[in-house]
Amino acid sequence: MKYTIKYKKSVEKDLRKLSQKDRSAVVRKIVSLGETPRPAYSIKLKGSVNLYRLRHGAYRIIYQIFDTTVMVVVVKVGHRKDVYKP
Predict the structure, then answer these.
(1) What is the pTM of this model?
(2) Positive or negative: CA dihedral 28, 31, 32, 38
(3) The predicted structure's pLDDT at residue 37
(4) Of 38, 34, 33, which Cα lies nearest the Cα of 50?
């Protein structure tokens, strides 16, 4: 079953901050979430419901999975030192 991928508006701004090379790689990882929303290398974040993270070098992709609506929502993309701050 293929998941629909949506993202918060702030993710567009987050992606613009990345270099073209990193942006392309991060977007490829986001697109792959449609096929496999829980890849083996993703980690469920503690203390939150349905929040997961993917790594790309020093960058992190934070996303939620909604199995009932078959949807993945990308919440935040950023450098590992900044992405977990509220």
Answers:
(1) 0.91
(2) positive
(3) 94
(4) 38
Q: Which residues of the chain have pLDDT under 50?
A: none
Q: Helix 9-16 vs helix 20-32: angle between axes, to the nearest 10 degrees?
A: 140
- Residue whose entry in the numeric block shows the structure tokens 């079953």: 1
C-alpha triplet 12, 72, 16: angle, nearest 5°:
15
Tell me how far apart the alpha carbons of residues 36 and 13 are, in angstroms, rounded to a whole number: 25
Q: What is the length of the chain?
A: 86
| Alpha-helical runs (H) found in 1-86 | 9-16, 20-32
Structure confidence at residue 1 (pLDDT): 84
Average pLDDT, the chain: 93
Question: What's the chain's Rg over C-alpha atoms?
Answer: 12
Strand order in the sheet with 43-44: 4-7, 71-79, 59-66, 51-56, 43-44
10 Å CB burial of residue 46 (0-12, 13-18, 19+) is exposed
